[in-house]
Amino acid sequence: MVRVTLGSDAAEATQAAISEEIGAIAQAWDGVPETQPRLDYPPYRSSLLRHPTKAPHQADPEGVELWAPVFGERDVDPLEADLTIQHRGDPLGERIVVTGRVLDGDGRPVRGQLVEVWQANAAGRYIHQRDQHPAPLDPNFTGSGRCLTDAVGVYRFTTIKPGPYPWRNHRNAWRPAHIHFSLFGTELTQRLVTQMYFPGDPLFALDPILQSVVDPTARERLVATYDHDLTKPELLMGYRWDVVLTGPHRTPMEDV
Amino acid sequence: MTELDPTAGQTVGPFFGYALPFPDDEHLVPPGSAGSVRLHGRVLDGDGAPVPDAILELWQADAEGNVVQEPGSLRRDGHTFTGWGRASTDRTGHYSFTTIVPGTSFFALTVLARGLLNRLFTRAYLPDAAGDPFLATVDTDRRSTLLTTGDETGFVFDVHLQGDRETVFLSYPRHKR
Ligand SMILES: [Fe+3]
Q1: pLDDT digits (tens, 9 = 90+) for A72-85
Q2: Whole-structure pTM value
Q3: Residue of B nearest to A34 (CA)
Q4: Domain with B141 in it: what CATH number?
């Protein structure tokens, strides 16, 4: 297999320099709560030319913005929620279950809505063609899954704990282990794409993507909790992670 | 009612290409079907360079202006219009949806990309919607960033993440910083 060598100019800054930038932004934070990442976050180099510089324009949601697509049984096979059974054999790594509730900003469960996940394998390698990390692919692991939330807003995936992986933001840059999540609410305004992290990862402080969420309280909400009650003897480890979307503008129909 | 703090967004990253796209994701109606049009354009960065690793979602009303609530977006049957789709940009930053002309004044779009730390929202207004009351709330010099232009296949809408022609992106009343 052909391996592409990292370009020498691709990763100029050291981790120390990036950490210093991260620290300076954290220091300059005024303490006013923030729930979302900064779009303008120079330590994440790819954001430099890709962040809007102007404040977003306030809009009252209209028409289609007050609704979300409907996903049904035809859209999602229940087997898609188990990322460990997509191939003939068992994938390598630590088998886990990740589950939690999807709530809207008013605390209502988001029912029957699509949740999509994708992740690296246990060795920190994505099946994506552009992932050139020289760690092994696992023929028994693709790393993408889907499910619909149930009647109380619960999603549940069985998968493998992903490994940390290197990237080219700076020299010796490593992403903490994470699972990418895509979530819908009851209307467009609630759309959320994010990443879930695992508790206690030593890479948190070094990672400009996680640290772009400058308020530590908001960062903590991206970290799952180990839950021994979800762990199954001799089978898998359990993690719990609840997601809160923004508040809806259209009052969802009351419970029938 | 207590308002809960929303979970933070994070970038979609570079590796969504085997997870978020699905067959016929960008074809809200089959290409070549009666009444089909294209909504297409490029996603560009602050240097005007193409963004080849973006994915857009189109949310739109049907031809009568009604919001559709039909399942089947992920496994299209070739007949049901669901009003929702996804299109990834190619190496030139170009995306393309095949859809119908909505019976309302705009297409709603969400934008995700590597390098973009949170999703963005915008509207692609039909060329004849220049008098729309919402557009009147936007600075005149930036209003055109929300307007599609017509071409022989349908509508063109470029997304400028940054720069002189930076697209007007939207936030809604219940969003928090
Ligand atoms: Fe990732």
Answers
A1: 999 999 999 999 99
A2: 0.96
A3: B177
A4: 2.60.130.10
